[in-house]
Amino acid sequence: MTALLERLKQKQKELKLDADNKPKAKKGKKATVFSKIEEVKGRKIYHTKIFNDFYTFGISKNEPTKFFISLRGIFNIEDISMFHLFSVREDDEFMGIYYGIRKLDKAFIVKNFNKKETYTLRKCEYIEFRFKKGSVFCYLNGLHILLKKDRVNSPYYNTLLNIILELETELYAFYSKKLSKGGIIPEWIKKRQK
Questions:
Q1: Which domain holds residue 112?
Q2: Is residue 177 one of the residues assigned to a domain?
Q3: How many domains, the chain?
Q4: E strands, 4-73, where?
Q5: Is the pLDDT of residue 143 over 80?
Q6: Whole-model pTM above 0.85?
Q7: Is residue 18 part of a domain?
């Protein structure tokens, strides 16, 4: 019996040594929303990863100097990521919201498990939140729906358009800027819609 106890103690020591020699796993680092941060001509440019569309947004209740934007993941719409736009300092200024299409550096493969289809993104629509000292480019896959004439009366089209119009209104109010009548997105859609 004592021999068995001795062997168990020896084995316990060996296991403890093995556990001590293993590199410790890093604690779960919070995933960032941004895929790239660059400095161009003294301006800091933030690029988000590609997301599907908006989840929610608004002025933070705990910190009224922050405007949060939550985005739904492109592969799983239940994955929610968030970033903040801060109130401007005295040497900075909110220039406005701009929309555009950018060709991606690498083709991006998207698998839609609900419809059992796969497609490749070679370009992606974005919303740019432009400031005097930098910009935030927010890439949203869902914006391409707004550029298709055959989708104009679909529920998703109308919902997304209303959400973006509300975002424009709230963000311009947050920065105390005047928004043009009707918003910015309808003009961009009119120019780009096919």
A1: 33-192
A2: yes
A3: 1
A4: 34-40, 43-48, 51-59, 66-73
A5: yes
A6: no
A7: no
